[in-house]
Amino acid sequence: MTLEKMQSDLQICDFNAQIREVSEQTSSYLEVNYGEDEIGRERILQISYIPMPGDDSTTTQFIKFLVLLPFKAPSDRLMEIAYAITIVNEELALGHFGLSSSGNLSYQYCLALDQDATLEGETLIELVALTEFHQEHFGDYLEGVCEGEVSVYVLKQLIQQTSP
């Protein structure tokens, strides 16, 4: 499935999806704008193919779904946030959250398909919707920890009490 086909499938379901051309050294990606959160920050999903080094005999294709969260972890609390991420990741049905050494948080999922397989439009739409839910719902818990509003000591119980 091409980025153009993904874009078309998502737009049919009213997702705001645009192809972004980066540079000759960097692959293009599909940007899906989930819209603004409750305080006006955009939440954006990037979908891209992960190029594999080596020859063209690879039998697997990898499609990466990545959301860079619109908030950062305070540099003096990175270990606490990393611990909170491990708690949240245990509750996820798909993908995982990550934390960079500079405090940037992300949510990502990588789909592995046989080289000859096609990602069906319905499956893509389900993955995009599930990614939207995970990054927003569970990302809110992580933002609460980042802001000191949620303690990592009660995080697991809080998630289990409020899970749909």
Number of domains: 1
Approximately what portion of the residues adopt beta-strand conformation? 25-35%
| CATH class division | Alpha Beta
Separate helix tally: 4
Question: What is the CATH architecture term?
Answer: 2-Layer Sandwich
Basic shape: globular
Derived structural class: alpha+beta
Biggest β-sheet description = 6 strands, antiparallel
Mean pLDDT: 88
Distance between the termini: 32 Å
The strand order across the widest sheet is 1-2-3-4-6-5
| CATH fold name | Yope Regulator, Chain: A
Q: From the alpha-carbon coordinates, what is the Rg to the nearest angstrom?
A: 17 Å
What's the β-strand tally? 6
Give the low-confidence spans.
none
Helix amount, in percent? 25-40%
Order of helices and strands: HEEEEHEEHH
What does this structure look like?
The chain is an alpha+beta fold. The protein has a single domain (3-162), classed as Yope Regulator, Chain: A, CATH 3.30.1460. 36% of the residues lie in helices and 30% in strands. The chain has helices spanning 3-12, 78-89, 121-146, 152-162, and strands at 16-20, 29-36, 42-49, 60-72, 96-99, 104-114. The chain has a 6-stranded antiparallel beta sheet. β2 (29-36) and β3 form a beta hairpin. α1 packs across α3. The protein is globular. The chain starts with a helix and ends with a helix. The relative contact order is 0.16.
